[in-house]
Specification:
The chain is an alpha+beta fold. The chain is built from 21 helices and 28 strands. About 2% of the residues have low confidence.
């Protein structure tokens, strides 16, 4: 990562890894920006619209030339980072898997358009990284992201003690003040003139954030100037008043290792920013994180999404070491998300009665936040209460939406904390945002549950047991943001034949689900009468034309003759079935194409016959299994055929799950999937 940043001139880099069986990206390596600035992006859902996740889904780099383009493509990112910078995101692709990705930032005036050299440098880096990740996974030792991202510092080439001594002497001889901050904002050096101007000494300032060490610098302009300098790598300046001596001018000069600051006296005519009382200062980073959290919560659809967003953003961004989010249900508080607490502690408090005298229940009951600055304060209010994982201060915040107290949020800190009024207001606002998002998500979940119940009730509860045939089926709903769909399957057995059907009604809404139920009923009725596949589709097509719903349906019928080891197929615009032979050879079958059902009432559908030897597997599926955004469906189908051919799993249920896992890769489209596997026995 250090090499690719040096070769391409990138000022910042964020490297993400995907954990196995997890649909979230974790920030693993960070360089060029502080952890505080990167905190809102420590975790990212694969469903989120970010440059890295989009690059992973599309399996190609994304290049953004300016802040205007960043804001147009990614409004949330543009809202919280309103600076002029350029960005590129690139995925780590090795074969089919996408194992992570990287985002690189350039300062203004350094466009990352993929010139041949820069494009090859980034592409080669991603290929090497993907290879390292693939080799580790193949050994059964996947490289997993750490709980906290590692920081990659920028080193000075050729630095030596003699140069350091000379630089120190040079700085001390200057009549003007100067100091240096690292990319985290902490002071690493200040000369004597600078310390005198600030009215302090180097020992008390070194290693601390200036705006925390000096109360009169706790103004938004200070943090904002530092953040703008780090992101854009452009000089910035601000003026602040040190009481009682008057205004000081700060000129910031950033690079990839930190920020150099010149400090001089400013004239009384210079516009200055007065510091509010220390207890009233919130800080621009606090507002920055609050803005980002609000934008992220606006995209969270389900209660689970809200819990993940809150937990992933609050702990790194707002400073607590522990968090627990609980909602009130059936007279109890149930924990739906937590970070930084042991499972034993969470289990102890999960299900607390609403009438209990615990601080979480108390905050919800009175509808007001409760703060404890230290352990003694907590013990006085709750004598005999157990310690919370050796924490020293706490904030318990009610979650109130539309006047209803729906839960509570508890934050814990490992050191005593005074909770000044500005911080209390910030945390209260934070709880309000979460409460509104939770209230909206609970309504969404309730509606979603009703819709899913409707859809699954229209599918067969179980496949019939048929002598001489092994069968497995599964249905996987789309990701959040989609309503219910019209994918269906069925298996109908009569003494003379066994008929399998699979189809997909156009649309993702209750109308599609209702029409799916009608189509499945019609198919079932015609199959029970022993109708051939082509005639079955023709009769169902005329029914849909008469209904005139304006929705079209794809459908595939496979009629099995288990005694003769043969199958007859007919299709109405449905993805072609696959046949894996007993020796593992897999082919794409090609029944004559037919129009989608519901277009032309007079359409004909031809039937073909194929051999179906014992031990072969016939795979019927809907398009969600093979569609990939930006990819030709023929290419993705061939990739799926190769996966089916090399998957040596005998049990059909396990084989079906393997095929679904292949389709659930982040690059896959989030569409409903119906899958039906059939294998004749000897």
């Amino acid at each position: 990562m250090a090499d690719v940043m040096h070769e391409t001139g990138a000022s910042a880099g964020l490297l993400y890894l995907l954990q196995p069986e997890d649909r979230r990206l974790w920030l693993a390596l960070l360089s060029g920006v502080s952890r505080q600035i990167a905190a809102p992006w420590y975790r990212a859902s694969l469903d989120a619209a970010t440059p890295v996740t989009d690059a992973m889904r599309q399996r190609r780099p994304i290049w953004l030339d300016s802040q205007e383009e960043v804001a147009r493509r990614y409004p949330q990112l543009g809202l919280v980072l309103p600076y002029d910078f350029a960005l590129a995101a690139c995925p780590f692709v090795s074969g089919t898997p996408v194992r992570g990705g990287i985002a690189l930032l350039w300062p203004v005036g350094s466009t990352p358009h993929p010139t041949p050299y820069r494009h090859e440098a980034v592409s080669a880096y991603c290929r090497r990284t993907a290879l390292v990740l693939a080799q580790a996974a193949d050994r059964g030792e996947p490289l997993l992201p750490p709980e906290e991202p590692r920081y990659l510092p920028t080193s000075f080439e050729g630095a030596d003690p003699a140069r350091a001594v000379a630089a120190l002497g040079f700085a001390e001889r200057l009549p003007t003040g100067c100091c240096a901050l690292d990319l985290e904002g902490r002071l690493t050096f200040i000369n004597s003139a600078g310390a005198d101007l600030l009215g302090s000494d180097a020992a008390s300032l070194t290693g601390r954030l200036l705006w925390e060490a000096l109360p009169w610098l706790r103004v938004p302009a200070v943090e904002e100037g530092y953040r703008a300098a780090v992101i854009t790598r452009r000089p910035t300046s601000f003026t602040a008043t040190r009481p009682p001596d008057g205004p000081l001018l700060f000129r910031l000069h950033p690079d990839g290792s930190g920020v150099s600051i010149q400090i001089t006296s400013a004239s009384q005519q210079t516009d200055t920013v007065e510091a509010p009382p220390a207890e009233e200062a919130v800080g621009v980073l606090g507002l920055y994180h609050l803005t980002h959290l609000a934008a992220a919560l606006a995209e969270a659809a389900t209660v689970h999404d809200v819990a993940d967003v809150a937990a992933d953003h609050i702990v790194p961004a707002f400073g607590p070491q522990g968090l627990a989010l609980a909602v009130a249900e059936e007279g109890r508080l149930h924990v739906i998300g937590h970070r930084g607490h042991s499972a034993e502690l969470i289990n102890r408090f999960d299900g607390t009665p609403l009438a209990a005298r615990t601080p979480t229940a108390r905050a919800r009951e009175i509808g007001a936040p409760v703060f404890f600055s230290d352990s003694a304060d907590f013990q006085r209010a709750h004598p005999g209460a157990p310690r919370y994982d050796d924490r020293s201060s706490w904030a318990f915040l009610p979650l109130t939406a539309s006047g209803r107290r729906i839960g509570s949020l508890s934050l814990s800190y490992d050191r005593p904390r005074s909770f000044p009024p500005a911080e209390r207001a910030l945390l209260t606002s934070l709880a309000g945002l979460i409460a509104q998002a939770l209230d909206r998500a609970r309504l969404y979940d309730a509606q979603h549950t009703v819709a899913r119940t409707l859809q699954t009730s229209l599918l067969p509860p179980a496949l019939p047991r048929i002598a001489g045939l092994d069968a497995a089926a599964c249905y996987r709903s789309a990701g959040h943001g989609m309503d219910i769909g019209g994918d269906f399957y069925d298996l109908i057995h009569i003494p003379t034949a066994t008929t399998a059907a699979i189809g997909d009604v156009q649309g993702h809404n209750t109308a599609a689900a209702a029409l799916m139920g009608q189509v499945r009923t019609a198919v079932h009725a015609h199959a029970t009468a022993g109708t051939s596949p082509g005639n079955l589709l023709a009769r169902t097509n005329r029914l849909l034309a008469d209904l005139d719903t304006g929705l079209f349906t794809s459908c595939l019928i496979a009629q099995l003759d288990l005694a003769r080891h043969r199958a007859r197929l007919a299709t109405a615009g449905h993805p072609p079935p696959l046949l894996r032979h007993p020796d593992g050879r897999t082919e794409v079958l090609s029944p004559p194409p037919g129009l989608l059902l519901g277009i032309d009432p007079n359409a004909d559908y031809q039937t073909i016959e194929i051999p179906l030897p014992p031990g072969a597997v016939l795979v019927l599926y809907t398009d969600g299994l093979v569609e990939v955004p930006g990819k030709d469906i023929d290419d993705t189908t061939r990739s799926f055929v190769r996966h089916l051919a090399r998957t040596r799993v005998h049990d059909l249920d396990r084989l079906a799950q393997s095929l679904l896992r292949h389709a659930e890769h982040p690059a896959r489209n989030h569409d409903d999937i119906a899958l039906l596997l059939l294998r004749p026995l000897r």
